[in-house]
């Protein structure tokens, strides 16, 4: 059975809807101009749902002002203080992330009523670092069973208040624990609430990228997860780029530029790495699906280019550009220099976008 469909502003999470990509602003509300700049940049990069921390009254007051600057749904991340949740909902939050077990019975009732009134969902976000005392004491450590039980308990609190617009996340910084926790919860997810999947505090661009890709990728391949967030100690734009690349690699979303590049060997006479990097950076904003192959020599170049929309290979220090036209691969540039070849490919991708 599929996951329940939950509306987060104009984006639907769950059901047969595409896996959405999320990120979180790293700039606080106290640097409002910078925050707006970052949020807009994330929107431009392709973030589907954006989250911001609302740690105090001042942030809650500015929440509505930030929302007015954006087209994508804006989520308020709340810890402990239910008054901030109420203020963020009043300011137009499209979803709140709060753990009902942390804010007391009466307070959660007030928050749920406010969420119902505004028709917005709540994400129960369980983290291995902030498990409730009672669950932690029962299991002795934040093991996957403990994380799944905590998520279940938090969901039940909302269900008892007749609230079902729920999204659930169960994150650990350990990849294997994260995968196991989601699997356990998924087997007891009686409401079929959609799952927000990610590995928390995964680390730097180098290690965090691998941890998130393995954790999120494994779960998505099992059909677990409706929305994802890469958690990286890096500019949040990197989270969006990584998430989109993963979804493309799994065939779950098809938009954007995919670069195929060879690892190079002694046969190449061009700098494949530099060219592939340059094309990837310059084509980041392209939304329509476009596949580019960058190959070091003619051994595999034409073959790979046949699978791509456009391909470039090195040949005696010069560049040959192949293009698919009417199903056939033809040479469109021969003996080109690096700049001519690069410009040709960039223009072709942009042309395709029109
Ligand atoms: S495409 Fe050519 S340069 Fe690249 S790895 Fe294969 S043989 Fe080597």
Protein described:
The protein is of the alpha/beta class. The protein has 2 domains: 6-249, Dihydropteroate synthase-like (TIM Barrel), CATH 3.20.20.20; 257-353, Sulfite Reductase Hemoprotein, domain 1 (2-Layer Sandwich). It is built from 12 helices and 15 strands. The protein has helices spanning 32-45, 57-68, 82-90, 105-118, 133-139, 144-160, 175-187, 205-221, 236-249, 272-282, 301-307, 338-353, and strands spanning 6-8, 11-13, 20-24, 49-53, 74-77, 95-97, 122-127, 166-171, 196-197, 227-229, 257-261, 290-295, 310-315, 318-325, 328-336. An 8-stranded parallel sheet has the order 8-7-6-5-4-3-10-9. The protein has a 5-stranded mixed sheet with strand order 11-12-13-14-15, with helices on both faces. A two-stranded antiparallel ribbon has the order 1-2. A hairpin with a 2-residue loop joins strand 13 (310-315) and strand 14. Bound molecules: iron/sulfur cluster.
Task: Write a concise keyword list for the protein shown above.
single chain, alpha/beta, five-stranded mixed sheet, about 350 residues, about 45% helix, eight-stranded parallel sheet, Sulfite Reductase Hemoprotein, domain 1, TIM Barrel, binds iron/sulfur cluster, 15 strands, 2 domains
């Amino acid at each position: 059975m599929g996951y329940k469909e939950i509306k987060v502003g104009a984006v639907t999470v769950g059901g047969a809807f595409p896996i959405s990509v999320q990120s979180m602003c790293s700039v606080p509300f106290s640097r409002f101009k910078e925050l707006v700049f970052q949020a807009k940049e994330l929107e431009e990069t392709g973030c589907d749902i954006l989250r911001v921390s609302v740690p105090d009254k001042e942030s809650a007051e500015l929440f509505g002002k930030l929302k007015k600057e954006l087209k994508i749904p804006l989520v308020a991340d709340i810890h402990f203080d239910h008054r901030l949740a109420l203020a963020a909902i009043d300011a137009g939050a499209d979803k709140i992330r709060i753990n009902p077990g942390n804010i007391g019975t009466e307070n959660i009732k007030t928050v749920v009523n406010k969420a119902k009134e505004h028709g917005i969902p709540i994400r129960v976000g369980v983290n291995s670092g902030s498990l409730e005392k009672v669950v932690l004491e029962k299991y002795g450590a934040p093991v996957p069973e403990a994380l799944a039980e905590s998520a279940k308990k938090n969901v039940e609190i909302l269900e008892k208040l007749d609230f079902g617009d729920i999204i659930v996340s169960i994150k650990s910084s350990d990849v294997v624990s994260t995968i196991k926790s989601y699997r356990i919860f998924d087997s007891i997810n009686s409401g079929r609430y959609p799952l927000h999947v990610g590995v928390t505090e995964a680390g730097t661009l180098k290690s965090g990228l691998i941890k998130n890709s393995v954790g999120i990728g494994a779960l998505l391949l099992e059909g677990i997860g409706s929305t994802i967030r890469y958690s990286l100690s890096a500019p949040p734009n990197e989270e969006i780029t990584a998430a989109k690349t993963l979804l493309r690699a799994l065939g779950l979303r098809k938009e954007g530029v995919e670069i195929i590049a060879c690892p190079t060997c002694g046969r190449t006479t061009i700098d494949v790495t530099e060219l592939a990097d340059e094309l990837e950076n310059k084509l980041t904003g392209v939304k329509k699906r476009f596949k580019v192959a960058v190959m070091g020599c003619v051994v595999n170049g034409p073959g790979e280019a046949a699978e791509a929309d456009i391909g470039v290979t090195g040949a005696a220090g010069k560049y040959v550009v192949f293009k698919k036209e009417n199903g056939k691969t033809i040479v469109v540039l021969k003996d080109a220099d690096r700049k001519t070849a690069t410009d040709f490919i960039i223009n072709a991708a942009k042309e395709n976008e029109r």
